[in-house]
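Help needed: design a sequence for this.
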């Protein structure tokens, strides 16, 4: 953290979350909480909850959640220090000068200087494009159909024909050669010394999610090679963990991101009104980029080139999206090559229709696979069906695999039972997946998800204790933080129980203990698990007892499986068994 914990907490406590969020979202009080339309995704029915008691927000639709700092960071695209400063100014709290260790100070200073250099370079390219020297670049972009407003929004620029102008400009601003080179805007060789990396190209500043320039892409005008030239990896620029245009796309409030291949595609999409478009940075789509997208959307629509290379890239991206837990669809760009050409020729309205008709990624994979087989030939057709079975085995969750199996059987007119037997046979032979077993009664069996069930009971208990802190003293002898088998849950329970034992109830402060945005979301979800509404005290007491018993039993089973020679685990197992025996005979009263 950049500021002392006590200052951060003072700022948080002086900014009531309901008051702050009311300045951004129209809220209506319902029961103990306030509800409104979520500002982080499109919805028609309010699922965005703000709790004055917990000083937290949570969206039951998209999972966004956290405390007042998290909200400002998400809504305003601010870093944590920026959010603290905004709220400190709002509450009239004087912030101290930030204290760094010597090593951190040097690192932050260097990082800051590199960002300054990139910002100055972006300004230089920007003004070059709009000068007489940039006429060629400006004409090229205008002929590509870009408006002045769009060029300004993306900060487009021009690198002149001379290979030393930018270096001289940055030197005049006081930056040393070592830093200029490290920023990636210049290169050194024995013949020319330090000289500009980019020249005679239209320039695309690459910004991180906080709108800071971290690198550049330069496009040659004509037939020069390479067509696109990108900044090298630096302290501030990691291609595999950034996406072009995501700084704008993340604020689109859409439930999906349109993933393109190039800068011009993204810009064309935004100009046409599809501001949820982003692109990878001259490299294949990576799992790091998929995890970044996952923060802001549940679904990705691929708008890759319709040629062979684009198809192969889409197939690779589908696998990565699936690995990251994202749903993928593919937009059909034919008869045009890319989104830029499509919109120019058929317009935004038609592209919107293609979005509505985007193809399920699994069926896209099958359609591409089908091209390798002659379905009029029985042997080739059988091989194709075997390939379908192999791909169906890729779904580890039985319910999902069964649903796709039914849809595939219908689409390709394969007998459902025949296809299911083929999948079961393939799965059994390869060990890729367990064959689906249908119960004789015809009723679907409950999914065997021990880990998820274990975590669900833990979430329910944390939410219940948070909603009714008065019950903690009554259950403290039966439950402790060590009973939470998930590491993040255990950290939250430890801090929560520690505070409750001291008479301090402050769940919102716990969010600030986690710097990772995904962890903050998960912590917020922990405090907002939906509890079943029970009418009588007897029903509620039984439900609470069952949850505590389940958490304790899962803990006992968890440590039993890890016992071995671990004395700590052995002690926990012994204590857990004793507690389970006591719990089975104990009634926990909810009376005051």
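Sure. Designed sequence:
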């Amino acid at each position: 953290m950049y500021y002392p914990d006590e200052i951060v907490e003072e700022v948080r406590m002086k900014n009531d979350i309901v008051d702050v969020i009311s300045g951004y979202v129209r809220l209506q009080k319902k029961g103990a909480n306030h509800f409104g339309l979520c500002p982080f995704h499109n919805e028609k029915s309010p699922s965005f909850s703000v709790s004055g008691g917990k000083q937290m927000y949570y969206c039951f639709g998209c999972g966004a959640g956290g405390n007042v700092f998290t909200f400002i960071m998400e809504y305003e695209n601010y870093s944590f220090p920026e959010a603290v400063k905004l709220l400190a100014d709002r509450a009239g709290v004087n912030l101290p000068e930030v204290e760094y260790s010597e090593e951190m100070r040097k690192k932050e200073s260097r990082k800051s200087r590199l960002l300054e250099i990139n910002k100055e370079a972006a300004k230089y390219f920007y003004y070059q494009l709009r000068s007489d020297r940039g006429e060629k670049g400006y004409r090229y972009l205008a002929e590509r159909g870009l408006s002045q407003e769009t060029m300004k929004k993306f900060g487009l620029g021009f690198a002149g024909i001379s290979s030393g102008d930018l270096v001289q400009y940055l030197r005049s601003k006081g930056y040393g050669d070592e830093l200029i080179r490290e920023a990636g805007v210049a290169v050194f060789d024995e013949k020319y010394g330090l000289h500009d990396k980019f020249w005679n190209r239209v320039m695309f500043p690459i910004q991180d999610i906080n709108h800071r320039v971290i690198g550049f892409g330069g496009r040659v005008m004509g037939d020069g090679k390479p067509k696109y030239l990108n900044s090298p990896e630096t302290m501030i620029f990691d291609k595999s963990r950034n996406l072009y245009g995501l700084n704008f796309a993340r604020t689109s409030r859409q439930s999906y991101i349109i993933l393109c291949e190039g800068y011009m595609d993204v810009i064309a999409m935004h100009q046409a009104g599809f501001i949820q478009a982003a692109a990878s940075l001259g490299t294949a789509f990576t799992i790091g980029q998929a995890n970044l997208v996952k923060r802001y959307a549940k679904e990705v629509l691929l708008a890759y080139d319709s040629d062979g290379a684009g198809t192969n890239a889409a197939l690779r991206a589908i696998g990565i999206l699936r690995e990251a837990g994202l749903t993928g669809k593919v937009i059909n760009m034919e008869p045009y090559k890319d989104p830029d050409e499509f919109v120019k020729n058929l317009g935004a309205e038609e592209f919107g229709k293609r979005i509505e008709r985007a193809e399920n990624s699994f069926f896209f994979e099958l359609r591409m696979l089908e091209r390798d087989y002659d379905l009029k030939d029985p042997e080739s057709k059988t091989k194709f069906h075997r390939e379908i079975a192999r791909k169906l085995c890729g779904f580890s969750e039985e319910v999902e695999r069964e649903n796709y199996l039914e849809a595939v059987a219908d689409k390709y007119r394969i007998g459902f039972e025949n296809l299911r037997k083929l999948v079961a046979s393939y799965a059994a032979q390869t060990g890729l997946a367990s064959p689906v077993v249908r119960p004789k009664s015809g009723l679907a069996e409950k999914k065997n998800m021990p880990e998820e069930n274990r975590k669900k009971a833990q979430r329910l208990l944390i939410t219940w204790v948070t909603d009714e802190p008065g019950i903690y003293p009554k259950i403290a002898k039966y439950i402790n933080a060590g009973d939470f088998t998930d590491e993040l849950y255990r950290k939250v329970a430890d801090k929560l129980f520690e505070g409750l034992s001291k008479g301090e109830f402050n769940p919102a402060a716990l969010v600030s203990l986690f710097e990772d945005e995904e962890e903050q979301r998960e912590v917020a979800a922990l405090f907002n698990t939906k509890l079943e509404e029970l009418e009588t005290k007897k029903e509620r007491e039984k439900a609470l007892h069952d949850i505590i018993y389940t958490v304790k039993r899962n803990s006992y089973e968890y440590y039993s499986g890890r016992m071995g020679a671990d004395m700590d685990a052995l002690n926990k197992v012994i204590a857990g068994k004793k507690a389970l025996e006591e719990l089975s005979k104990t009634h926990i009263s909810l009376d005051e």
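The radius of gyration is 28 Å.
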